[in-house]
Specification:
Layout (H helix, E strand, L loop, with lengths): L1 H7 L5 E4 L8 H15 L6 H5 L6 H12 L5 H20 L10 H10 L3 E5 L5 H8 L7 E3 L12 H10 L6 E5 L2 H9 L3 E5 L10 E3 L14
Parallel strand pairs: 1-2, 1-4, 2-3, 4-5, 5-6
Helix pairs in contact: 2-5, 4-5
Bound molecules: 6-O-phosphono-beta-D-glucopyranose and magnesium ion (MG).
6-O-phosphono-beta-D-glucopyranose (BG6) binds next to helix 2 and helix 4.
Length: 224
């Protein structure tokens, strides 16, 4: 009984945001760049295929894409293909406007901070710092972990555990916002709470699912 009461006292003291697909629609830019690569290699990449790529590192995503196309490649060829995809992705990023940040996201971050909740960014992308700079939110986070700082890609919990450590908050008091199945799994494996951003069918393992990041109401923090 005492144990249960203690558990209930666990408050959310930090929110950790994924980037692509949670703060901005760069997930779509990743998809378009992978689709172009698949087309160049002679096959189609569908939005359903793309769900497997979300949250996963560049090289692991490439392995999945090649597998979907039944293509084998040497390490050197893979490097060339990954660089090509990254250049196409960056063509979109270069044209990105600060207004592309999802509506209500800045407000949500501000509200969380005003309540004394720490805010972290945990993105598998090696382009994350460029993207948040372009959006003008690089100074909003108490801790940032990106794809250059981790060894294991989501669904491994490493990225979230490292972010929590940098924030100085124990995992049980962290809430993750994720649009990727692999990201939800990573959050759960880290022992954190998770809000899925997207379809409840896809993200049914999350503690709560919202259609858009800003649909999350901070009054929910106490209920999680
Ligand atoms: C994740 C995206 O945030 O970053 C994946 O969801 C992407 O789609 C991964 O593959 C790696 O991104 P980058 O920018 O390092 O190629
Ligand atoms: Mg994402």
């Amino acid at each position: 009984m005492r144990h249960i009461e203690n558990k209930k006292l666990n408050l959310i003291r930090a929110c950790i945001f994924d980037l692509d697909g949670v703060l901005v629609d760069t997930a779509h830019y990743h998809f378009l760049a992978w689709k172009r690569l698949a087309n160049e290699l002679g096959f189609e990449l569908t939005p359903a295929d793309n769900e497997q790529l979300k949250g996963v590192s560049r090289m692991q995503s490439l392995d999945i894409v090649l597998q979907l196309g039944g293509i084998t490649a040497t390490e050197h060829e893979k490097e060339v293909l990954a660089n090509k995809k990254n250049a196409w992705f960056n063509d979109f990023v270069d044209r990105m406007m600060p207004e592309e940040i999802f509506p209500g996201v800045k407000q949500l971050i501000r509200e969380l901070k005003a309540k004394g909740v720490k805010v972290g960014l945990a993105s598998s992308s090696k382009n994350a710092k460029t993207v948040i700079q372009l959006l003008g939110i690089q100074n909003e986070f108490d801790a940032i972990v990106d794809g250059t700082m981790i060894v294991n890609s989501k669904p491994h919990p490493e990225i979230f555990l490292l972010t929590a450590e940098k924030l100085g908050i124990v995992p049980e008091e962290c809430l993750v916002f994720e649009d990727a199945e692999a990201g939800v799994e990573a959050a759960l494996a880290a022992g954190m709470k998770c809000v899925g951003v997207g379809s409840p069918l896809q993200l049914n393992r999350a503690h709560e699912v919202v259609a858009k990041t800003a649909d999350f109401k901070i009054t929910e923090l106490a209920k999680l």
